[in-house]
Amino acid sequence: MLTQALRGKDIFNIDEVECAILEMNGLLSVLKKAEYQNVLRKDIHLTPSTSKAPVELVFDGELLEENLSDHDHNKEWFLAQLKMRNLQVTDIAYAVVGSNGNLNIDLFRDHVDEK
After folding, report:
1. Helix/strand/coil for 81
2. How many other CB atoms are there within 10 angstroms of residue 104's CB atom?
3. Residue ranges, CATH 3.30.240.20, the chain
4. CB 60 within 8 A of CB 67
5. I need a labelling partner for 80 at 20 to 30 A (CA). Which of 26, 31, 106, 112 fits?
6. How far is residue 7's CA from residue 16's CA, in Å, rounded to a whole number?
7. Can you tell me the distance from the alpha carbon of 72 to that of 97, in angstroms, rounded to the nearest whole number?
8. Which fold has domain 2-44?
9. Average pLDDT per run of 10 along the chain, which is 115 residues long?
10. pLDDT for the residue numbered 111
11. What pLDDT does residue 19 have?
C-alpha cells in the first residue's frame, strides 16, 4: 500500500524518501531526500522569465486601442510599425504582440498568387 502511494507521487524507489506522513484525510505527504528534490530556477541562479502574455492589437481590421493603453507598446509605436510596412489597420485581419515582444501581422490579402 505504501509503495503504491509513493508511485502516485512519482517515487519508485523508497530510498528517495526522507519522511512520509499519512495525513488525517488519507493522503500521503512525502519529503524527498535533498539529493532527489527538484531543482528550482533560483537554485541555479537563473533570472526569472520576462515573457508576457500575447496582446491582440487588431482583429478583423479594427484597432483594439484598449489593449494598446494597457501594454508596453503604445498607439504611436504601432502606427509607426504600420508606416514602416506601408500598411493601414484596415489591411490587417489580425495583429498581435507575441510573448517575446515581436509584432505578428496577418493580412487579409497575403499577396499570394491565386491560380
Report:
1. helix
2. 12
3. 2-44, 55-107
4. no
5. 112
6. 12
7. 10
8. CRO Repressor (3.30.240)
9. 90 94 92 92 77 87 86 84 94 90 87 53
10. 57
11. 94
